[in-house]
Amino acid sequence: MQSETTTDSPLWGLDLGGTKLEGVILESRSNPKVLHRQRIPTEAGKGYEHIVNQVGKLVDLLSEESGLKPAWVGIGHPGTLDPNTGLIKNANTTALNGRPFNIDLEKRLGVPVRLANDANCFAVAEALLGKVPEVLPNAEVVFGIIMGTGVGGGWVIHGKGIGGRQGIAGEWGHNFLDESGGPCYCGRVGCVETVISGPALERFYEQKTLRHLPLRDIVTAAETGDDDDAVQTMDRLVQFFGKAVAVVINIMDPDAIVIGGGVGNTDRLYTDGVAEARKYLFNTRIDTVFLKPQLGDSAGVFGAALL
Ligand SMILES: [Zn+2]
Q1: How far is the CA of 261 from the centre of ligand 1 (A)?
Q2: Distances, alpha carbon 8 to alpha carbons 3, 122, 127, 260, in Å
Q3: Residues with CB under 5 A from ligand 1 (ion)
Q4: Model confidence over 233-280: pLDDT tens digits?
Q5: What pLDDT, in 10s, does the model give residues 76-111?
Q6: CA of 121 to the centre of ligand 1 (A)
């Protein structure tokens, strides 16, 4: 009955961001209630060793508060642990890149760690604990999207997060979309992220108007209808979102897509964006259900705890 004991033991999940580091202890997989929660600054600017120490400090804090010791710790983080080199790559918290983060953390924590990309943690949490089980209890394939400063995503298949052969599963943000996006930090041109991320849309608006506005204000200006440049910026988002996400649907045909992140909050994505996707789909209908996320900021830690 070993496995039953494991299923019912508390789960430890951490979410490592560039600015904050959050951790939770959940009661169990079958009853994922938050028992304890702590948050400390990451202070990523102080370098790699400091980040490893901050993770250790957070786990110590949770241990003191709860009187518990973890059997293992799940950690969501920017970038990917390359399964072939054992080193982190593609992280915008650049101090992590090229480092054997899991090994250094295991040394510091004294227990096994399971790492996953933060978008993958978001996808796992929303697929297992968010709106998906309520709306589609039999969903087999779920794609979780994060559209904000960057564009990323993660797959959950039969309840399990999928990392991929090279750790890049779900990275639709760096599919080619349109030359007009210009150069991407990844070294290519016209990636999805260069067209429909928040900064990309702000740049598009600024090129038209010579005014910099945060995306939130562009959305508001477009809704009032008298700022034609704002309307065109939102049209660009909706049209290219549809075109980009249709590629994903044609390949994996997910039951549900959950759209998180600041840009993902745009209502038109769920109506006009879906209608645009249908134009490029190898089907006359679009049955994939598009959902808003339900767990908010907590998705990262929940997903990490469920790894
Ligand atoms: Zn790119």
Answers
A1: 18
A2: 9, 22, 20, 29
A3: 174, 184, 186, 188, 191
A4: 999 999 999 999 999 999 999 999 999 999 999 999 999 999 999 999
A5: 999 999 999 999 998 888 999 999 999 999 999 999
A6: 21
